[in-house]
Amino acid sequence: MKTGLIHIYYGTGKGKTTAAIGLAIRCAGHDGSVLFSQFLKTTPTGELAILSQLPKITIIRSTGSSKFTSQLTPQERKQKQLQQQALWQRIQEKCHQLKPNLLILDEILIACHVRMIDEASIITFLKNKPTQTEVVLTGRTPCPHIHPYADYISEIKKQKHPFDRGIAARWGIEK
């Protein structure tokens, strides 16, 4: 049985989720099973519309408000935190049940950074994940205590981005 490795894709640049989705498609294309999860993101996207049609890919994602965490009221933040913790619990249970070839934890690093998911619980999961499951963690901000458990660490740096000029995420490109 092969041992699944751990990937971290982080940084300020565009492409972390895109890289994870590319790996998910590659895995499914080789008849591998994929559990694709997203923290904090709730809006529909083009990539999820396609991924949801692929029989080897199971999707679990956030529900509730699509506001950035910095825009939440204290009450909304607490509710969002409870939702994210419940999501994290569901993902862990589903992963141990399905034992997928690949688990994508999209935006888990930012969920950890904003203290919605406990870093220690992520480390515990990584230590006890199904042996064959490859795991990808993405997010803007790294969690340094998780880094020692990774086999791949890729920093994706922004050098220039349209958002800095006030151009919002565009349909078919960023969403």
Within CATH, the superfamily carries the name P-loop containing nucleotide triphosphate hydrolases
* H/I helix tally: 5
Number of domains: 1
Q: Hey, roughly how much beta strand do the residues contain?
A: 15-25%
CATH class membership:
Alpha Beta
- The total of beta strands comes to 6
CATH architecture: 3-Layer(aba) Sandwich
Q: Main beta sheet, described?
A: 6 strands, parallel
Rg result: 16 Å
- Low-pLDDT runs of 5+ residues are none
Under CATH, the topology can be stated as: Rossmann fold
Describe this structure as you would to a colleague.
- With 175 residues, the protein is an alpha/beta fold.
- The chain has one domain (6-159): 3-Layer(aba) Sandwich (Rossmann fold).
- The protein has helices spanning 16-29, 46-51, 74-98, 108-113, 119-128, and strands at 6-10, 34-38, 57-61, 102-106, 134-139, 152-155.
- The protein has a six-stranded parallel beta sheet with strand order 3-2-4-5-1-6, sandwiched between helices.
- Helix 2 links the parallel strand 2 and strand 3.
- It is globular and about 45 Å long.
Write the SSE topology.
Blueprint: E1 6-10, H1 16-29, E2 34-38, H2 46-51, E3 57-61, H3 74-98, E4 102-106, H4 108-113, H5 119-128, E5 134-139, E6 152-155
Q: Main traits of this protein?
A:
corrinoid adenosyltransferase activity; 175 residues; alpha/beta; single chain; 6 strands; Putative cob(I)yrinic acid a,c-diamide adenosyltransferase; 6-stranded parallel sheet
Please provide a brief summary of the model:
The chain is of the alpha/beta class.
